[in-house]
Amino acid sequence: MMNDDDDDCAQAIEDFMRVQCKCHGVSGSCELKTCWRSMPAFREVGATLRDKFDGAVEVIEQRSGSRRELVARNARFRSPTIADLVFVDASPDFCEQDGKTGSLGTRGRLCNRESAGTDGCELMCCGRGFQTRRRVVVERCRCKFHWCCFVRCQKCKIELEEHVCR
Fold it and tell me: In this predicted structure, what is the pLDDT of residue 4?
């Protein structure tokens, strides 16, 4: 049984299906041409769904005469189109720990100071800020393969700078 998420994924795959053809014949002549529909690359489908998720619109159902239609909950946002991903219930707040939803919150999580994405400190730390800490780790380095059959490495100390949500 498919749910709405499966329908969205199937629609994204269907939208990006393409026709591929191959010619058959002597010396590459196209005496016979075979064509088929092929699925898009997994990354292409994933990127499309990610873009739709990032632009998803929260909606409410509204009556317009005898018709019912979905309109954006916030009037500042445009009304959704048939191609948009929409949602009715907002996601829970994952910034703070919540036993009901199973969220551990983001306090103490490592974040990327330079990123503007979901791994970035501004977004992941939910505006609470972050602390920077330095630590030294010992790693294997300058490894050499010796014939036959072992690898010998040196140990190097590396100073790491980590950023942790408050």
Answer: 56
